[in-house]
Amino acid sequence: MRSLLLLALLAVCLPLSAAEGRRNVLFIISDDLNNYLGCYGDPRARTPNLDRLAGRGVRFDRAYCAYPLCGPSRNSLLTGLYPNSTGIHQNALIFRQSIPAQLSLPQAFRLQGYFAARLGKLYHYNVPNSVGTDGHDDPASWELEMNPAGVDRMEELDVAFSVTPKQFGGTLSWHPSEKSDEHHTDGMLARDAEWVLERCARDRSRPFFLAVGFFRPHTPYISPKAPYWGQYDPDQMPLFPKVGEQPAGVPKAAFLGSKKDQEDLPDDVRRKAVQAYYASISFMDAQVGRVISALDRLGLAESTVVVFTSDHGYHMGEHGLYQKMSLFENAARVPLLVVAPGVAGAGTVVRTPVSHVDLFRTLTELAGITPPANVQGQSLVPILKDPSAVGRGWAVTQVIRGGVGRVAASTAASQVTASKKKNAPKSFFGYSLRTDRWRYTEWDEGREGRELYDHESDPGELINLADKSEHARTVAALSTQLKEAVKTTFPADGKTPEVKEVLWSPLIKDAPR
User: In whole angstroms, what is the distance from residue 137 CA to residue 189 CA?
Assistant: First the structure.
């Protein structure tokens, strides 16, 4: 099998265009990772490799996803379009169902001469069950796909603990594995990334876009017991007030992402969950280190733009919540590190808010690639060059609440319309605007509540100021700004795409190859 992959890789590396002067791209994405990283000031995290990567380039301190759920977020990031323009607001869907002819980010590189490869999870996967498969992938995006599956998927689910027995992907679950790094899926992905980089270094006739999607720290938090679990004392893990203990004045909608099986856990279970999450982060960090070391060893670092991010943020008890699907900072904020040799200074910190949607224009500009005309977001290249530049100055994140039909209610318009059907639970959107100082959120355009948090005095977002008379002008101004921002998330023609109720794969004929 490995020999067949080698032949395929050598075939796609044949010189279709001159690679000289064209930057490679190494795009690394983690799954369900928040900002529990040393380079973001976390006092507990043991993440030396990501910390060093941050020291080589630019750390975006205020980077945000478009949607705090894997499928919508990844479709948005990889098309450069907000969820209102992809039509994807839930998992298990792919943009080919709604906008089949749209170019994805790697596809844009591929069609302009790049070798594009995917290792692991880039589009949505059902974790852990889809590990080792293509998941909900887009074949038009890649020339090479690799899907290893380690002991974390193949052997250890039977012994993993879950707060809901035998359920792993959507609930808190973990296992300290006795097997070392190389036996786990992410360890295999790091090995495969080394293998691909070695061959691309050997034949540099084409530049590459290599995307590596690590699965950790997604549940179940399975990682090698040694050395990662021992780096975190469960007795020292933080605890936060539960949902019913939250400060008054926060709309009910803010907590509707909570899961009943995770709302009233014993303290020892809560601490163990946090320990397991941190251990998975440190394990993933070590695999990133292997990939970056290979880039350096092979002499590719100076010609390669490196991006590291996560699909969305994550709660580990903050606001009484676990996992995602909130519009608090914990779920909306993501780590974003960009190393762009010759463009950005080392060890630079950018504080202006930016979005995942900005990455498409940024990477295509850095590589001299022409993006599709309808791509949204801004290019971050001016900010990479001058970290004091403000750019757009805000980021918007959205989420849906209420009943959603699987396909018929998958677009922004039809999801809300579906809630009006007889006996259907009410559906509505929440939109959150993050500026340099404020987070302002409206649920159902304010009908289901508003939130205002001052990050200068309240970075934990514990005191909702939206109903305070002394902040009425701020609320009015931010409400107007939010409405204008939301308008930019829809297609230029104002027509929200509809998700086709068919298997998406036949639509690949409409995708440019």
Answer: 17
Residue 258 lies in a domain: yes
pLDDT tens digits, one per residue of 439-452:
999 999 999 999 99
Shared-domain flag, residues 447 and 318:
no
d(CA 512, CA 358): 23
Give the H/E segment covering residue 84. Answer: helix 83-86
| Residue-wise pLDDT tens digits, 307-347 | 999 999 999 999 999 999 999 999 999 999 999 999 999 99
What is the extent of the structural domain holding 470? 395-510
**Are 247 and 464 contacting, i.e. CB atoms less than 8 angstroms apart?**
yes
Count of the separate structural domains present in the chain: 2
The verdict on 214 and 341 lying in the same domain is: yes
Structure tokens of 401?
């609440």
Is residue 192 packed enough to be buried (19+ CB in 10 Å), middle (13-18) or exposed (0-12)? Answer: buried
Q: Residue 378, class by beta-carbon neighbours within 10 Å (0-12 exposed, 13-18 middle, 19+ buried)?
A: middle
Average pLDDT value over all residues in the chain: 91
The DSSP annotation for 45-72 comes to ---HHHHHHHHHSEEESSEE-SSSSHHH
Residue with tokens 């889809």: 130
